[in-house]
Specification:
Belongs to the FliD family. By secondary structure, the chain is of the alpha+beta class. Helices cover 43% and strands 17% of the residues. It has three domains: 195 residues, no CATH class; 71 residues, no CATH class; 124 residues, no CATH class.
């Protein structure tokens, strides 16, 4: 703690503070530059986030064939069969007559396994049940063949009926069920359908084409002579051809058919492009593109107020909160004004969407499907949709719209519009990251960060220098106080000496 001005009567602290304020002016300018560059860095990153979001939207919609193959499928008997498109790029039509639905094989024990009141969570040995150490379950696989190796169910002294059931249901090809009312066990193959070849198994083996249980079954499972139903294939007539499938849901030529029940007559179905859904995706893409270029154009054209510099801590202390907000609104303005990276990106995006696509059979320009560039130069290249024309292009041939946006030729001129756009966005984002980094980047990895690091070093050195200057001022004023005190003492001595004569 310093006590000053005792001899001179001066407010030394205030005087030194004012002197230091003058010394701090160069430091305040450096801090203003640092603050402005931090705002600029943050605005670059915000722009990069918008580029990233639009890039993902473009990739996830305009470059995916699934966007354009959405179809509306009608059926004359939707309660009997349902049809939906999976990967067909063309429309389809047909007739189906369902003779028989696919069924899973089942097997049930003829004898009681446990008492009806048995606790399934108790150990089997405590229930006085004689059990084998293991048994194997073989069942039909998804490809229609029998799992020859099967799954081995192991039983030890800690096993319970519930643990055995859980093991079977989780790991084997069947679902097992214990019925406490009858005390019997039932098995159902997880996959439906029938197996052409049957096993000729002997010994303690329960043999059924779709479910085979091998092991010591006499005492535990008690399924010897089990009641069983064979699995069945679905049998149907498709456009005059009688055929079979292992399951009731299957694909034909890129569309999925689900059989629900046997039919008495032919069921007709047909498809057409789901124009509304495809149109919705294209319109959303155009809307987001327009929002992006509007935002980026506003950034590079935003006015810069050079008279409004970032406020220092001392300046903020003398201002109201609303005044600070209004000041900083102008101080932050124009951080990306005339930025070359963003300006170049806007130009490249416009070029990517306006150029023709080579090698496609249908429409090769946006204008041919009803999307044009606005005639209003103030809108800076926004896209305008003629919905009637676009809807017709989608309805006539959605695949031509897909090719226009997503074609992937050997040359840039042969690549689809969305593919070119994604390449431009990726290149722009790379340049922005090199300049402003990402939220997790350290300052030494991008150009603005290295400049900010330089400012931080300057500030640190300047603050050390100010500390030395302030110490020097206090020493100088202290020396002055000491001189004044000596002069006062001498004056008092002389006055006393002359007065004494």
């Amino acid at each position: 703690m310093r006590i000053t001005g005792l001899a001179s009567g001066m407010d030394t602290d205030t005087m030194i503070k004012e002197l230091m304020n003058a010394q701090r002016i160069p430091l305040d300018k450096i801090m203003q530059k640092k603050q402005y560059m931090e705002w600029q860095r943050d605005d670059y990153r915000a722009a990069n986030k918008k580029l990233f979001d639009f890039r993902n939207l473009t990739s996830d919609t305009m470059l995916r064939q699934s966007t354009y193959i959405q179809k509306t499928v009608t059926s004359s008997a939707p309660d009997e069969i349902s049809v939906r498109n999976i990967s067909s790029t063309s429309d389809f039509t047909g007739k189906i007559n369902v003779k028989q639905l696919a069924e899973s094989a089942t097997m049930q024990s003829t004898d009681r396994v446990l008492a009806s009141d048995a606790d399934l969570t108790k150990k089997l040995k405590d229930l006085k049940v004689e059990v084998p150490s293991s048994f194997t379950i073989k069942a039909i696989k998804t490809d229609g063949s029998l799992d020859k190796d099967g799954y081995v169910v192991k039983i030890d002294e800690n096993s319970t009926m519930q643990s055995v059931l859980n093991d079977i249901n989780k790991n084997s090809g069947v679902n097992a069920f214990y019925d406490s009312f009858t005390g019997k066990m039932a098995f159902t193959a997880k996959n439906s359908g029938e197996i052409a070849n049957t096993l000729d198994a002997g010994g303690n083996t329960i043999n059924h084409p779709e479910i085979v249980i091998e092991g010591d079954t006499n005492n535990f499972l008690k399924v010897t002579g089990a009641v069983a139903t064979e699995g069945k294939n679905a049998i149907f007539v498709y456009n005059g051809l009688e055929t079979q499938r292992q399951t009731n849901t299957f694909q034909i030529n890129g569309f999925e058919v689900s059989l629900k029940k046997a039919s008495e007559s032919d069921i007709t179905f047909s498809s057409s492009p789901d124009t509304d859904k495809i149109l919705e995706s294209v319109v959303k893409f155009v809307d987001e593109y327009n929002k992006l270029i509007e935002n980026l154009n506003s950034e590079i054209r935003e006015k810069k107020y050079r008279d409004f510099q970032p406020l220092s801590t001392e300046q903020k202390a003398d201002m109201k909160e609303k005044e600070i907000e209004l000041w900083e609104e102008k101080a932050k303005s124009g951080t990306l004004r005339n930025d070359s990276v963003i300006s170049s990106a806007l130009s490249q995006m416009r070029s990517a969407l306006n150029a023709a696509v080579g090698g496609v059979l249908g429409a090769d320009r946006l204008s041919e499907i009803g999307i044009t560039t606005s005639n209003n130069y103030m809108e800076n290249g926004k896209l305008v949709i003629d919905e009637t024309k676009l809807r017709k292009a989608i309805s006539d041939d959605p695949n031509q719209v897909y090719e226009l946006f997503a074609a992937d030729g050997p040359n840039d001129s042969d690549k689809g519009l969305a593919r070119r756009l994604v390449a431009t966005l990726d290149d722009t984002r790379k340049k922005v990251i090199e300049k402003a980094g990402t939220d997790t980047a350290v300052n030494t990895t991008f150009s603005l960060g290295r400049t900010l690091k330089g400012f931080e070093d300057q500030i640190s050195r300047f603050e050390d220098r100010l500390q030395l200057i302030e110490t020097r001022y206090y020493k100088q004023f202290s020396a002055m106080e000491s001189a004044i005190l000596r002069a006062n003492n001498q004056s008092s001595y002389l006055m006393n000496a002359f007065g004494g004569q």
